[in-house]
Backbone:
């Protein structure tokens, strides 16, 4: 491949030329001067987290002026830019000591897309049956949530205002009506239909719950959040056995315990080696050590529970759409997509119905 050719014959690697790609490879090599390189082995990635970006893994073969030859994988992500750009988070957080995947460089696509070139992590996710991996998952989250923000970085961050959504009675009223109609007509399957027929909790109870949570979230202290801290958004630098965070496009200012609320709820599944209580106590102790703030466990758990209820409410529109159309990115089989999202929607509705029935 000559330096004036595109990286792949059909320009499938986002239409980038070798000249554009060369500075990225120079960062990959870093310690030596680059003589030549070739990009090969392109592979697209799909999965549960693939809706907002195109993701590829390539193999970069290179030769240095000193005669060293190597082949190294590189992870490439293209997305239409968020504000601030995702690369901005990688630069700031890595410089601040937060364990994030290393960013080798960033380019802009022909339509203004942000194209990130990141280190390839050999293993994604955590082994939930291994306690040490769960402890490490909690530790890296605390490091992110408690990082000190300088004024310049903080000003660029999106500030989540969940109360606006929660207290939009007109929108939520229409949505809950739509959801109930689909449920009772059987459009979402027999299980959700039976759930609505069984429970007397309907629109007004959920609207009251949302409004109350909107009032509460206004009062909660803010902090840096990842915004999507699921197992699929961490991976391992295997040689160092170090867990790293990636997918930073949703990093923002929000309720300080937003991320840990989802993590703790995920530990209620039977395959988790840690209990909800163990993980909550451990996270809170680390958080207090790093912030110097005292906080009662009961206060922490109350915040977590409220934030989880907000997460459930805000997930309903997306889950309803997918439960109806089955359009998912991990399979072309729409019926399978519907089946999975109906199961998830049922679980969320059941939790919300039970929670709203307990409220005054």
Residues:
């Amino acid at each position: 491949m000559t330096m004036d050719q595109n990286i792949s014959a059909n320009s499938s690697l986002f239409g980038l030329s070798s000249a554009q790609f060369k500075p990225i490879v120079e960062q990959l090599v870093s310690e030596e001067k680059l003589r030549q390189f070739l990009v090969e082995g392109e592979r697209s990635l799909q999965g549960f987290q693939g809706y907002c970006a195109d993701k590829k893994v390539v193999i970069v073969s290179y030769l240095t002026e000193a005669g060293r030859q190597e082949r190294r994988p590189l992870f490439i992500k293209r997305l239409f830019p968020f504000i601030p750009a995702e690369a901005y988070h990688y630069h700031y957080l890595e410089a601040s000591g937060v364990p994030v995947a290393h960013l080798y460089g960033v380019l802009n696509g022909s339509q203004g897309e942000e194209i990130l070139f990141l280190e390839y992590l050999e293993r994604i996710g955590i082994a939930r049956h291994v306690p040490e991996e769960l402890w490490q998952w909690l530790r890296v989250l605390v490091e992110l949530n408690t990082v000190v923000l300088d004024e310049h970085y903080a000003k660029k961050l999106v500030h989540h205002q969940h109360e606006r959504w929660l207290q939009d009675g007109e929108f939520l009223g229409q949505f809950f009506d739509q959801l109930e109609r689909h449920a009772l007509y059987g459009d979402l399957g027999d299980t959700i239909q039976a759930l609505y027929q069984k429970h007397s909790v309907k629109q007004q109870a959920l609207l009251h719950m949302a409004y109350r949570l909107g009032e509460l979230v206004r009062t909660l202290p803010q902090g840096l959040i990842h915004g999507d801290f699921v197992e699929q958004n961490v991976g391992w630098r295997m040689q160092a056995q170090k867990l790293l965070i990636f997918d930073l496009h949703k990093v923002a200012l929000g309720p300080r315990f937003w991320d840990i609320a989802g993590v703790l709820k995920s530990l209620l599944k039977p395959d988790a080696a840690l209990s909800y209580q163990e993980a909550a106590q451990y996270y809170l102790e680390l958080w207090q050590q790093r912030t110097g703030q005292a906080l009662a466990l009961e206060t922490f758990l109350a915040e977590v529970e409220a934030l989880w209820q907000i997460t459930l409410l805000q997930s309903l529109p997306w889950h309803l759409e997918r439960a109806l159309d089955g359009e998912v990115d991990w399979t072309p089989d729409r019926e399978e997509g519907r089946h999975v999202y109906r199961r998830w929607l049922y679980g969320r509705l059941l939790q919300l119905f039970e929670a709203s029935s307990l409220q005054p």
